[in-house]
Design a protein that fits this description.
6 helices; single chain; mainly alpha; about 130 residues; about 75% helix
Length: about 130
């Protein structure tokens, strides 16, 4: 059995584990839902290791651009930038309880970005433009 790039089972397994591991941490902290992690794990199995690292960086960059545009469109850009700054300060200082409280996407009044669409778009961009 070969992956998209003809690498075999082991790279597909490592891609799955890498994507699931990173995105499970995001889920555990409260940055995103479990479905995003499962989708990224499926992408990791499809793309394989080490290409999944490129896809995750691409998805993160695309997510930042879409997130900024979405918050600007909703009129919440200053609030989102301030919250992001506070979150980063708490992360650096190791205030895990504050990080968990601030990053809970399910809290009332929070903007919710459908990240599955960002994962799909980033993966598609990778598949279209990555040299084989």
């Amino acid at each position: 059995m070969e992956s998209l790039f003809g690498l075999g089972f082991a790279p597909a397994l490592w891609g799955w584990l890498a994507a699931l591991g990173i995105f499970f941490l995001f889920f555990a902290v409260g940055f995103m839902g479990a479905g995003d992690g499962k989708l990224m794990a499926a992408v990791g199995a499809f793309i394989g290791w080490p290409q999944i690292v490129t896809v995750m960086v691409l998805v993160a960059g695309l997510g930042a651009v879409v997130g900024l545009a979405f918050s600007w469109w909703r009129g919440a850009l200053p609030q989102v930038l301030g919250s992001t700054r506070g979150l980063l300060v708490d992360l650096v200082r190791g205030r895990w309880r504050a990080v968990r409280e601030q990053s809970d996407y399910r809290a009332p009044g929070r903007l919710r970005l459908p990240y599955g669409a960002v994962i799909a778009a980033g993966t598609l961009i990778f598949l279209l433009f990555y040299p084989r």
